[in-house]
Amino acid sequence: MKGRPMRRIVTKKSNRAALASWMLPPPYIRNPELARPSTEKKLFADWDVSGAGKGRLDPSEETFHFKRLHFCAYHLSRLYRRAERSPRSKRIHRAYCMWTQRYHAIRERLIEANLGLVYDLIGRSRFGNLDRDEMSSEGMMALLRAVDTFDPWRGFRFSTYACNAILRAFSRAAMRDSKRRNLMSVSFEPSFEKSDSLDRRRDDDRNLYRERLRRILDANDAELTQVERLVLERRFPSDEERPRETLDDIGREMNVSKERVRQIQLSALAKLRKSLDADAVLQ
After folding, report:
1. Looking at 52-56, 126-130, 252-256, which range is the least confident one?
2. Domain spanning 8-168, CATH architecture
3. Which class is domain 196-282?
């Protein structure tokens, strides 16, 4: 399929009142594989409700999930057209709801696996005149558009496609900001020239790590034991008003040595660090 122009198929909205509350099928990229009878079984034989796990995806897994995404959109389009002819069919409505849930689960999986691209490009880009929040917003929107328009049959890696889209979004935002500055020029004021962007970036990174760490702890993605969670909570309490306990205090309460408490703490911290290193958002 390399070299062929991409063709996105958009389903026309129905005028039937019975379908007014239905989500319009998302666009999909036309490819002969979608129409083959064996494709559904090939792509969804091992489907589960989670949409296929967590963390980063390797290129082959990513291509597989994008094919799933376009098959969902293709199948929703077919169901939508069938529903126009039989708008009161409960069987079609149930199937439509099921494939809609699958579509959103796969799309969210792909977005989460590639959020790190946005943060990485923000850190490496040289658009110093742009606010970090604005870059985050532009980058996220570019990532969403890239997920919706990527053609998995052309042989390219999604990261290459998405990075180009995100950098173009940064460039367009920088051009708009430059034009705005030219139109709204002001007299020189030294106090306005001092930037706190570096401090804010550090704060943003710190808050992001805290949020991801809290999520890992809540879901116990690090697979901490009950004892490890207890030691961490005593050593690093989530309540800022609660004082930290010493290794000796915890050891006496648990009837173990101070050194044993230290070993449990180090083991728990190593598990958390491993989970943070594998977190797609922080890549």
Report:
1. 52-56
2. Up-down Bundle (1.20)
3. mainly alpha
The Cα 168–Cα 145 span in angstroms is 12
pLDDT in tens, 76-107: 999 999 999 998 899 999 999 999 999 999 99
Query: At residue 69, does pLDDT exceed 60?
Result: yes
List, by residue range, all CATH 1.10.10.10 domains of the chain: 196-282
Buried b (16+ CB within 10 A) or exposed e, 151-161: bbbeeeebbeb
Which tens digit of pLDDT belongs to each residue from 150-172? 999 998 899 999 999 999 998 88
Judge contact between 278 and 221, C-beta under 8 A: no
Can you tell me the distance from the alpha carbon of 158 to that of 162, in angstroms, rounded to the nearest whole number?
6
Which DSSP string corresponds to 18-78?
Answer: GGTTSPPPPPEE--HHHHSTTHHHHHHTT--TTSS-SS---HHHHHHHHHHHHHHHHHHHH
**What are the E-state strand segments in the chain?**
8-9, 28-29
| Spatial separation of the C-alpha atoms in residues 170 and 222, rounded to whole Å | 35
In the structure encoding, which two tokens stand for residue 78, read together?
A: 């077919």
Which residue has better confidence, 205 or 104?
A: 104
Angstrom distance (rounded) from CA 11 to CA 84: 12
List where CATH 1.20.120 sits in the chain: 8-168
**Residue 80: both structure tokens together:** 């939508």
pTM: 0.61
Helix (H, G, I), strand (E, B) or coil at 128: coil
Which tens digits make up the pLDDT trace of 238-248? Answer: 777 788 889 88
